[in-house]
Known about the structure:
Largest sheet: none
Shape: elongated
Strand content: under 5%
Number of helices: 4
Helix content: over 70%
Amino acid sequence: MSTTVIPFSRYNEEFSSIQNQIRSTLTTITSALDNNPSDSTIESKMSHANNLLSQAKDLLKQMTIESRSIDDKDIKDECQKVVRVAKGNQANLVEDVKAVQNRVERQALLRGSVDLETGMSTGKNSAVREHLLKTNSTLQSQNSTLDKARRVMAETEDVALEITEELSRNRETIESAAFKSTWC
């Protein structure tokens, strides 16, 4: 093995180790959400998973740089393949972390706005609930506006149909009168 490949190999080993740590942390968080959603360590574990994800991203950058700096074409190609696979794994991990983060945030909202350890009201959940209520109110208002616009549009169509029918009757009357005046 070339000395230029050694740093790449170490980065790859570290990247794999971090991937396993992230998966393990996500499994622990998911298990805690399923079994004990009020577990106070969930947020810190989620923060840990995000930190590991950041480290994996940095290692991936280093692996990319190292793979580009390898002189031997065959080894370089092999290392770049490893980087492509690692990027795919990183993208999957990002999606997994986001999914678990969404579950954690949802559980936090559903738990309520009281800190379970202290029994005190937390501003975080209250602020999030308030934001959701405002958003919900805005959506209801917009839906109401859309319903009014649909009613106005339907009324406008009805008026247009009535006008068209009246014009049709007037045309028939005028044509009938014109026909009679030419024969008389």
